[in-house]
Amino acid sequence: MAPPIVQCAVAAGLAWMVATEAVGHSRPFFAPIAVVICIGVGLGQRLRRAAELVVGVSLGIGVGDLLVSWIGTGAWQIMLVVALAMAVAVFIDRGTVIVLQSASSAVLVATLLPPSGTGGLDRMVDALIGGLMGLAAVALLPASPSRLVTRHAAALFGSLADVLRSTAEAIDRCDPAMAAAALQAARGTQAHVDEFRQALDTSLEIARLSPMHRRQRSRPAEYETAADPLDHALRNARLLARRAMVALDDGDRLPPWFPGTLRELAEATLLLRDELAEGHEPRRTGAAVRAAASRLGTERWGFSADVMNAQLRSITVDLLQATGADREDALSALPPLDPS
């Protein structure tokens, strides 16, 4: 949280200075407010937030100035102004920021800032100054895009490896309770996926905006290639852990090569984490996943085993695609199944 806090603080002060000293506005409170909304303490979509902010403030002020000058202020007037401002914003764009800013700006005009001369235009200019200063702060005081995405990716890779290892251990011990624990842990991994995607969006945005990190643009792009396949691999790992729990609880026979292959894929996942973090092309990961794929069985063992084998094959394809392989190449690494 340190980088966005510093960005907000510095840009808010500079936005106030620009609006007061350079533009000559006496109370440009929309300028620092726009900075805080534009940058925020969350990750991603700052360009969109800045655009929504300026449009939302402009809508709210425009609707508020127009109506309040006709109907005055009061409880029912505020109801009407807020409803109309939000309705117009929704018709233009359903983004959260634009709708909320149009409503809050209309409320300010209807209560504290009655329309007067160029007041509405001044507030729009203040919002534009704040949005631009916020984007400038992101560009000139940026967090490292590679470090940001690498840190959040590490949690995602670790979660996938843990699920695969825990499932392998449960199968080794024929312990359905351990498989249930692996499934429970797997169900909590979606937060890591969401955080990683937000960090990736922010890293790509910083790399585009900041002249200081132009050389790092390829690093987030490599993670972008891996994002969807890793998400799919985690989903398949959850299904695998669930079927392992059912199979062990029913006492089904499972292939003896399952645990070893699961551990190999877990190690390959961590190897992919390390290669991407170091900025290397994940060739060793590709070789490790292909080696694990060569040990996938082709025989039929029963319903649960066949379902788990299908999930293992899917995870293998997902990991190969995460290294940059196309789907056809990844599928070709799988041994053909026994049709009988």
UniProtKB/TrEMBL annotation:
Main location: membrane
Membrane-crossing residue ranges in chain numbering: 26-43, 74-92, 97-115, 127-143
UniProt keyword annotation of Transmembrane helix present: yes
Membrane topology: Multi-pass membrane protein
GO cellular component: membrane
InterPro entries in alphabetical order: Memb_transporter_dom (IPR049453)
Domain Integral membrane bound transporter: 15-136
Keyword set includes Plastid: no
Keyword list, A-Z: Membrane, Transmembrane, Transmembrane helix
Pfam families the record matches: FUSC_2
Subcellular localization(s) per the UniProt record: Membrane
Protein name: Integral membrane bound transporter domain-containing protein
Species name: Nonomuraea aridisoli
